[in-house]
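User: Batch of two.

Assistant: Item 1 of 2:
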Amino acid sequence: MSVEKYRATVTSIGDFAGEFINEGVLVFFAESAPDELKEVAVIHNRSEPQISDIAVGDTISLGGEKFPVLAVGSVANENIKNLGHIVIKFNGLNEAEMDGDITVPEVGIPVIKPGLELKITS
């Protein structure tokens, strides 16, 4: 039985977020982020606080498409808790390149649009 660790809904997409998406990176920030960060990010509302730390083997669901977590950087969970900041890299690496990264397999990123639900489960 899976346990939901995090849930949020995309509310808007920054004008420059597509540049990261084209590179296989989804950058999320909560709605409380400063405007300059909102320009480059997928903005979401947090409906629930993070239940427990995200770990290798968890599943990220984006609008129904599921991706296994391959690596979690050393500050990724802290960033989520404090800022609603999530960096998902679709690079297939088993080790995070940067401390805030969460990596998943190197596959196409689903279409990101307002209303899309982000869920992380164990």
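Item 2 of 2:
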Amino acid sequence: MNWRNQLAIVAVCGVAVCSAVYYHGKYAEERERANTAENNLRLANDTITDMARRERDAAALDAKYTQELSIANAENDSLRQRLAAGGRVRVAGKCPAVPATTQATSPPGVGHDASVELTASAGSNVLDIRAGIIRDQTALRALQEYINMQCLK
């Protein structure tokens, strides 16, 4: 074999090696990009799944407390109708303990466990206050449960 043939063989092998190195590097970059795209897609799908679950949980929480509030409002409306029809609405309560010296000098009046009759407007005001308290407590419980379910996980 003469030196020209040897040179041609070396040149062909050099071109083959350079091509292999070039294509190997090119495909490695493409594989890396494909892996990155797959990871991003997996992350996006996981995020969407998590968001859908959280949305379902929040909707269930909303339905639970909306129903609770609806029942309490219906009870309050029933009490309001009874009061408007001239009926009586019992408000349970106790007066705070009064010192013995005050009890001895106070005029006879309502005892600690006695019933108190309210006027219609006062009764309506009490029911308005009751409705506000129920609404606020329900909203507070709903928010606390939402925080425990969604934010503290």
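The chain has a mean pLDDT of 80.
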